[in-house]
Amino acid sequence: MKRLAFETAAYACSVALECDGEVHQRFELAPRRHGELLLPWADTLMAEAGIQRQQLDGIVLSRGPGSFTSLRLGVSAGAAIAFALDIPVFAVSSLQALAWEAAVKHQQRHIWAALDARMGEVYCAAYGFQTMPVADNALNHQPPAMLADEALLTPAQCVSNETPPRVESNQWFGAGNGFANDDLQLATQMGARLQAHDADCWPSARALLALADSVAGIAAEQFSPVYLRERVADKPKSGKS
Predict the structure, then answer these.
(1) Number of separate domains in the chain
(2) Which residue range(s) make up the domain with 175?
(3) In a domain, 146, yes or no
């Protein structure tokens, strides 16, 4: 199996190549440079593996949620390759990929994934891992169970109605730059629900590949990103932090 993955939902930009059971990745925190890096990285990875685009079996894309502009760059690059080659697209949640990276990095089972959505909100979801993923050439992992659906919330809404659910206090690990914004104070709001957090944890292309077999491949023209915020320019109507 040979698949190329693009992850551009947040500040981090990454491209990864799965080639016959091995995964190779380029990753960089590169705000506003996604468009500059994506295709050269993809070409470099394929050249190093000794393969041509025509040998690819599929494209794995972050479907969001995330930054509208950067997410579109990854979608446009990957979907264009898939369309030209008539190969399937595998669409994986950026929040699930973030949770996978946090589980690998910190060996934590219950992940509250949060990306800064600006406007006083975060894109967030909660996941539980039955088996711990590992980083080295990791493929075909059992995906984590979703314990709280993807949502666009204020920090106050993140802790209302006993959210995140079904896990005792102080057993959640927070991941993502939603915990980095001092104005949001997400970690403070969540309080005892969190045992710790890592704001410098990002979704990655290698995580997309690790989770790709949990979703069905679709035609490139059927792919549609998930933004959660229908009108990007709108401000939240209520629940400001």
Answers:
(1) 2
(2) 95-198
(3) yes
Of 166, 167, 156, give the one whose Cα is nearest residue 190. 156
Exposure string of 64-78, with b = 16+ CB inside 10 Å and e = fewer, is bbbbeebbbbbbebb
Q: Contacts for 133-137 with beta carbons within 8 Å, 24 or more apart?
A: 133/100, 133/103, 133/104, 133/210, 134/104, 135/104, 135/206, 137/21, 137/22, 137/23
**DSSP type of residue 231:** S
On whether residue 136 sits in a domain, the answer given is: yes
Residue 134: per-residue pLDDT: 74
Would the pTM of this model clear 0.85, i.e. be above it? yes
Q: Pick the residue with more confidence: 190 or 91? A: 91
Span 115-142, mean pLDDT? 83
Same domain, 127 and 49: no
Buried/exposed code over 30-54 (b: 16+ C-beta within 10 A; e: otherwise): eeeebbebbeebbeebbeebebeee
Could you tell me the two tokens for 166?
Answer: 């079904």
Helix boundaries (H) for the chain = 34-49, 68-85, 94-106, 155-158, 186-190, 205-211
Quick one: 187 and 209 in the same domain? no
26 and 119 co-located in one domain:
no
What's the CATH code of the domain at 52?
Answer: 3.30.420.40
Do 19 and 56 share a structural domain? yes
Same domain? For 99 and 187 the reply is: yes
SS3 12: strand
